[in-house]
């Protein structure tokens, strides 16, 4: 008996383990192990749990309709999942396990434990890398070290992709007939324990059918303009596919293949190349997380930044969390996150920089808060984005670079349409006041005053980083 172990790859299309397992003509069964305690330990948002569990329901139905059984077990945490898998393998007489690799430290340790226990029983494990376009150990600098600068990594990444010219994973050779979905009730019970607001569930569409439809719409309607529109949060300029890529309802290869033909189209080329570049960023942060495992324990990439003396001002932190900083674009962004489970990339950079530079609060607090709300919460991308913004990471924004919340607001939300959507106190303000309400306090009485001045931030940050460097 062959087993396909589904983790964060909840789909039938573009799934090498499934295709390979079904290629041999042997009996195949599928498994997913719920790990709610691990989700708790990793601070995973209810929104993301909801997205994953609904995607799992769809996967179970799809597999069963094509003749493959899906079993869902509850492992508790990763340690429990190893034991649950071991028992399942023994009970079902599994001789080979097929799965996609995962790269953060806890996932690696889980998989090493699985390999030790199963291989001792003569069970073969076949690992694949469908979660990325380029596997995290594939590319090295001339010195044989991992890349830590994105531009250099991307050059090699492009060469790899050009040489490989990857094609879609062939569709599985389905057995046909009706399979079983064993443990569906476990998924339904797990869903019942969640409290996820309608403002989140109305917006996101779990499952691979939705992801594939969304990809098609994005490529047909927005890809060509991606470069020009992606920085404007009021516009539907980005794909909104991060939750699907993170839960694996969409394969990164399928995303890449959908965009690749546009590289030959003079009008769409720039947009497509820029979007594919974002998929490369996704790979980059995965290889960083894999090659520098201390990041998974909360360490900054730049060791000297461990000596920064962060502020413990809890009132400032709460104001940031609740979108009450007095800076309209920052507040609109934070309210978008809490209301919808998602935040636009430009605003993730802005709010993260605001927390770590203006308020000088530890990036790890912001990282956790994002994780607790994001429908697309993804450890490697979130950690990479936070460390970039806080200037503690690989290839990070230099510490002397501080986004001005007002300038960003004028530049990327010029008419204040995005702000008006999330900050009703400013919805009727004119398009100057909406960026700087403190200039017209009588017109915006319900909106909070700024909790910190922009002036002086750059100097404070510079001296804090210098002090950390000197103390190192
Ligand atoms: P698109 O612009 O359509 O991009 C396509 C895909 O490329 C995305 O779906 C995503 O998978 C990937 N991608 C895009 N930008 C990045 C990036 N900078 N780094 C890595 N991958 C990228 N992304 C997450 O998926 N999960 C997170 O938890 C996450 N946390 C972040 C935290 C901070 C502080 C920052 C600055 C960025 C974070 N990002 C995260 C990256 C990025 O903001 C989101 O991927 C993007 O906003 C998702 O929207 P989209 O799907 O419309 O992206």
UniProtKB/TrEMBL annotation:
Keywords of this entry:
Chromophore, FAD, Flavoprotein
Q: What cofactor does this chain's UniProt record say it requires? A: FAD; (6R)-5,10-methylene-5,6,7,8-tetrahydrofolate
Q: Does the keyword Flavoprotein apply?
A: yes
Q: Which InterPro entries match?
A: Crypto/Photolyase_FAD-like_sf (IPR036134), Crypto/Photolyase_N_sf (IPR036155), Cryptochr/Photolyase_FAD-bd (IPR005101), Cryptochrome/DNA_photolyase_1 (IPR002081), DNA_photolyase_1_CS_C (IPR018394), DNA_photolyase_N (IPR006050), Rossmann-like_a/b/a_fold (IPR014729)
- Whether Flavoprotein counts among this entry's keywords is yes
User: Per UniProt, what is one Pfam family of this protein?
Assistant: FAD_binding_7
* Every Photolyase/cryptochrome alpha/beta domain range: 1-133
Q: Which PROSITE patterns match?
A: DNA_PHOTOLYASES_1_1, PHR_CRY_ALPHA_BETA
Name the domain of life. Bacteria
Family membership: Belongs to the DNA photolyase class-1 family. Belongs to the DNA photolyase family.
In Swiss-Prot or TrEMBL terms, this protein is called DNA photolyase
What is the originating organism of this protein? Alloalcanivorax venustensis ISO4
